[in-house]
Fold this protein.
Amino acid sequence: MFIGEYQHTVDSKGRLIIPSKFRESLGAEFIMTKGLDNCLFVYPQEEWKALEEKLRKLPLTNRDARAFVRFFFSGATECILDKQGRVLIPNNLREHAKLVKDAVIIGVASRIEIWSKEEWDSYNDDDSLSYDSIAEKMAELGI
């Protein structure tokens, strides 16, 4: 399970250090793709395969399902860590997440999210995010 928040910088070659606490669960090879809210999603291989199976079952006739699958898979790339625990983030994914220098890496249970520091700060400062209201909605979902 991935938990916690870490800050690192993207180097001039587009590489980012993955926190050591995430590396063992992530594995040497993993999948990175465009995420929601202008971040990147990073999945261990087994989590990616489980998600891929669910997405394959979406109806091809549903326009929103097709759009989501295209968005999700078109940005996906297989990644490996180098000996220093860094991953090279492809340019198209850095552009999607607005990653230039400062990054925030967070654990979200079964995946990792990579945010630009500016986007993460903006997300957390969003007045429309009422955690009390969100908690009420989660209670409606049985959480």
User: Anything to note?
Assistant: Strands lie at 5-9, 15-17, 29-34, 40-44, 77-80, 86-88, 102-108, 111-116. Residues 45-56 form the longest helix (12 residues).
